[in-house]
Design brief:
Largest interface: A-B, 24 and 20 residues
Strand order of the largest sheet of chain A: 6-7-8-3-9-10
Helix content of chain B: over 70%
Shape of chain B: globular
Oligomer: heterodimer
Number of helices of chain A: 10
Number of strands of chain A: 13
Number of helices of chain B: 10
Bound molecules: adenosine-5'-diphosphate, magnesium ion
Strand content of chain B: under 5%
Radius of gyration of chain A: 22 Å
Strand content of chain A: 25-35%
Largest sheet of chain A: 6 strands, mixed
Radius of gyration of chain B: 18 Å
Number of domains of chain B: 1
Chain lengths: ~280, ~230
């Protein structure tokens, strides 16, 4: 559905993207992970045709991105940030503008607002909405016209956990209905929970990509077991046969309060990967 | 074309909820009606207030409204969302321009109630030309400015010059000489005579030059910067 080959982009002679390759099959959720300033937003702007690039090729829906017409782009639903709302207009009027632009019947407005849980705020001016409600209003605008590809640039950053969960539910629903979803985040847990594929972007380079589980397993070279004992003591030991006796003993004598095996999270993988890279540079 | 109408309608809805813009549109028409109907001084030229407020209206409302609308949409990112939904920049500008012109003409219609017959036509033509030039100038500022702050700092002085210079010119000859080169001043002289017939070649030249300058500036800026 979306593919990039060797994409380069500079801003004022400073490289921002250096050779991006990616391939996103239809109907999957692709997560681009990276710290702030990594180039995530820049890549979304390139793929959606808002920004020119210097080298490489970008294809969307099997067409060169530069040849996409306005009509083709109606297949896109793009959320770049949580602004772009008409403050003085009500939620309903905000969506009405875009319903008219896309030529969709007005009854879709109420339906969409209901989907994001804003049916009670329909007549409220957008200025009176909470941060989480505004995020959901933006999301409503993004998929009201039933696009086949969603681009979500940090859809949940800065939101409370409850709104985050609601948004995750909406994103999963959209995936079920066949949408291809490209999202960026710097929240590793979010990527783990939502994405079929994640790519770790650092300083304009994709340092690794794969399914979240795959990546975590791949970097699972320091498996540990950690325990909290009833005495209040915390223990950590090798995840291997060497520790088996000891763990067995502790369990048998009933001194273990909690026990976990620590697998690397995307967070630690990222740290490890980029940390390494920095060392190589030095 | 459909998008132009959508922008027009959106702006209409927004204005009803935006008091600062609404006041700008209403201020001069309402003041005119009040002054003309309450103040009578012997020897005062006929429709003195209407004519004075008319060119101030031309210099202020369309200029500030256009610049404020465009810069606010840039600042709040709503413009980017519109262009991502495939509204072309020229459709957007046309929608906003048409809307400001339409509202201002409605205001001018209110102000014209003191005139009769042909005078109404002359008055509305003058206002229509003036609004168009001011809207173009306002759009230049809107395109140039990154946000509302920058827009404000540019349009306030421009507005002062355009709308007050013709008035100060009544009392100060030196300023009068300079103000002659402004379209607001030229339009004011037409309003004084209430006919285009007495317009000298010089006046026509100045008016055309003004039109040419704002139009060229508008297209240059638009081509260079778009609505980014
Ligand atoms: N229009 C621009 N002009 C110059 N530099 C830019 C522009 N947009 C982004 N950058 C730079 O490119 C880098 C990547 O930015 P961005 O893609 O926004 O990162 P992210 O979204 O991952 O936080 C940043 O260092 C930023 O300063
Ligand atoms: Mg970003």
């Amino acid at each position: 559905m979306i593919s990039c080959k060797n994409v380069y982009k500079q801003f004022n002679d400073r490289p921002v993207l250096s050779g991006i390759d990616l391939d996103i099959p239809a109907g999957s959720v692709y997560g681009l992970l990276g710290p702030s300033g990594a180039g995530k937003t820049t890549l979304i702007r390139i793929i959606t045709g808002q920004l020119d690039f210097d080298e490489g090729s970008v294809r969307v829906m099997d067409r060169d991105v530069k040849s996409l017409t306005g009509e083709d782009r109606k297949q896109f639903g793009i959320m770049m940030d949580r602004f772009g709302i008409y403050e003085r207009l009500s939620c309903e009027d905000n969506l009405k503008i875009f319903a008219d632009i896309y030529g969709i019947p007005h009854r879709r407005i109420a339906e969409t607002l209901e989907l994001v849980g804003l049916e009670d705020a329909m007549k409220k001016p957008a200025a009176n909405l909470s941060k989480g409600m505004r995020a959901r209003l933006c999301l409503a605008r993004v998929f009201m016209h039933s696009p086949s590809i969603l681009f979500l640039d940090e859809p949940t950053s800065g939101l409370d956990p409850q709104t985050m969960k609601q948004i995750h539910r909406i994103i999963r629903d959209k995936k079920k209905s066949g949408c291809t979803i490209f999202l960026t985040t710097h929240n590793m847990e979010e990527a783990y929970a939502l994405c079929d594929t994640v790519a770790l972007l650092n300083e304009g380079v994709i340092v690794d990509s794969g399914s979240p589980q795959e990546i975590c397993r791949k970097y699972n070279h320091q498996k540990r077991i950690s325990m909290h004992l009833s005495s209040g003591e915390d223990l950590e030991m090798e995840h291997g046969s060497a520790s088996a006796e000891r763990i067995c003993e502790l369990l048998r004598t009933g001194r273990v309060e909690t026990i976990h095996s620590s697998e690397p999270t995307l967070e630690t993988v990222f740290l490890e990967l980029t940390g390494r890279k920095l060392e190589e540079d030095a | 074309m459909r998008n132009v109408i959508i922008i027009f309608k959106k702006q209409l809805k927004d204005t009803l909820k935006n008091k600062t813009v609404l006041i700008q549109f209403l201020l001069f028409p309402v003041m005119t009606l009040i002054m003309e109907n309450t103040i009578r001084i012997d020897g005062m030229p006929e429709l003195f207030f209407t004519k004075m407020f008319a060119f101030m209206y031309i210099g202020m409302a369309p200029l500030t409204a256009t610049a404020a609308i465009i810069s606010e949409e840039k600042e709040k990112n709503t413009l980017r969302v519109l262009t991502m939904a495939n509204v072309r920049p020229r459709q957007y500008l046309l929608g906003i321009g048409a809307y400001v012109w339409f509202i201002c003409m409605t205001g001018a219609g209110l102000m014209a109630t003191g005139f009769h017959g042909m005078e109404i036509a002359v008055f509305l033509t003058v206002m229509g030309i003036g609004f168009t030039l001011s809207i173009l100038a306002g759009a230049c500022i809107g395109i140039y400015a990154k946000n509302q702050m920058v827009a404000n700092s540019v349009f306030i002085p421009v507005m002062m010059v355009l709308s007050f210079a013709p008035m100060v010119a009544l009392f100060n000859e030196r300023i009068g000489k300079a103000a002659r080169y402004l379209y607001t001043q030229q339009l004011r002289t037409v309003l004084d005579r209430m006919s285009f017939a007495g317009m000298k070649t010089e006046g026509i030249c100045i008016l055309s030059a003004n039109a040419l300058i704002v139009t060229l500036l508008f297209f240059t800026l638009f081509k260079r910067k778009g609505l980014e």
